[in-house]
Amino acid sequence: MNGHLHTQQLLDFIDASPSPWHVVANMVERLGHHGFQALDETEHWQLQAGGRYYVVRGDSSLIAFRLGQKPLSSTGFKIIGAHTDSPGLRIRPNAGSCLDGFVRLGVEIYGGPILATFTDRDLGLAGRLSYKTSQGSIANTLVCFDRPLLRLPNLAIHLNRGVNDDGLKLQKQNELPLLLARWTQEQLPPDYFQSLLAQQAGITGERILAWDLAVYDTQPGAFWGANQEFYADSQLDNLASCHAGLTALLDDAVLENDGTQVCAFFDHEEIGSESHKGAAGSFLPDILQRIAIATDTGLQAYHQTLAKSVMISADMAHAYQPNFPLAYEPEHKAIVNNGPVIKVNASRRYSSESGSEALFAHYCQEAGVPYQYYSHRCDLPCGSTIGPIVSAKLGIACVDVGNPLWAMHSIRESAGVLDHNYMILVLKRFFCG
């Protein structure tokens, strides 16, 4: 029962979070309901033992933590890391154009989406607008077109006879602009798209100065399968891990634990994490150092704390798809609904090593959760995560884990109901251990 309950909560979370900026806004709301207080990086911090806090950087990265009763140097930090962004399409600054009487929006590719899955979908638009206030300062606001607004119609098979043999291939510059409207005049007004944004956000068009806008699938998440044992939605990579981590942090037993627990949710993982709010930036080191300073933890004690700290990098894992057996390493098939996956790579594309792998396996056993191992085929390049980046930057032990996922980087991904509940259980046990 808990599996479907937690998964329904995940689907509701994803459907309310069509962009990384909405993800963080929804996390902030949930944290507030559990007594977490916002901290501002520009202000002096005063922290209390047992206090619950969070910090937002750049509107799309968030670190939440609960300060334990025991000194940091005796417990270390227990950290769960995940990312708020997903691969897809982003709207260009000069977006609107008119060709043969059709208004199109120009896009850039963000990360590594499966582009063909964006065709023939009911696409919406969501993100952040930056605008000038009546007082002359710059402010940000969220915007969301929660209806089918855009489309990328496929070419009929009669005009692309080889599509079933060769696969759908889209020319990235010319064939990705999204259809928005029919325009009967020769020239599109230069402020057409900006006016559309202004109307949706309730802001005068001339006050909008810039935007970060993501294309998303408006179809809500759903259970599927003969026994409803699977679920599908967009952005499972990696909002499923974000939801599991936050749910674990907000558990009553975790919030009463003596140690200090941290959830770090980063933007920009899908494009390499190199930003002021990405995992390769200073966000997490800055926050951990400020926790130490605010608790009178000296430099030597701070390094003791890091030496005792452990991180779980939670991202999704490649689930075995029986129609494509040759895509997988035959002895490391991650099966949906068979439990979380420990991801291992000898070239350190994942941060796992025997010590951290064993620790996660131990927590799984204590939580009564099955677990699996995943190793990539040697003849295919392996993706990576925030795990190796953060582990190297902080000098802390880390393990890369994730739930099995079908169609990673598709606009519509699928996973197992049991696995989401399993992940929450083991992350709770990690925080309480």
How is this fold's topology laid out?
Layout: H1 2-15, H2 20-33, E1 37-39, E2 52-57, E3 61-66, H3 72-75, E4 77-83, E5 88-99, E6 102-110, E7 123-132, E8 138-150, H4 163-166, E9 178-182, H5 192-201, E10 208-217, E11 222-224, E12 230-233, H6 236-249, H7 252-255, E13 260-266, H8 283-294, H9 299-307, E14 310-314, E15 317-318, E16 341-344, H10 354-367, E17 372-375, H11 387-394, E18 397-402, E19 404-406, E20 413-416, H12 417-432
Parallel strand pairs: 1-2, 4-13, 4-14, 14-18, 15-19, 16-17
Antiparallel strand pairs: 2-3, 3-13, 5-6, 6-9, 7-8, 7-10, 11-12, 12-20, 16-18, 19-20
Provide keyphrases for this structure.
Aminopeptidase i, Domain 2; globular; 433 residues; 2 domains; alpha/beta
Please provide a brief summary of the model:
The protein is α/β, with parallel strands linked by helices and 433 residues long.
In percent terms, what proportion of residues is strand?
25-35%
What is the β-strand count?
20
Structural class assignment: alpha/beta
Number of domains: 2
Oligomer: single chain
Per DSSP, the total helix count is 12
Give the CATH H-level superfamily of the largest domain: Zn peptidases
Distance between the termini: 25 Å
Provide mean pLDDT, rounded.
96
The strand line-up of the biggest sheet is: 1-2-3-13-4-14-18-16-17
Which CATH top level class of the largest domain fits? Answer: Alpha Beta
Helix fraction, binned, reads: 25-40%
Q: What spatial form do the alpha-carbon principal axes imply?
A: globular
Query: Which regions have little confidence, pLDDT < 50, spanning 5+ residues?
Result: none
Using the 3D structure, state the CATH architecture of the largest domain. Answer: 3-Layer(aba) Sandwich
And the CATH topology of the largest domain?
Aminopeptidase
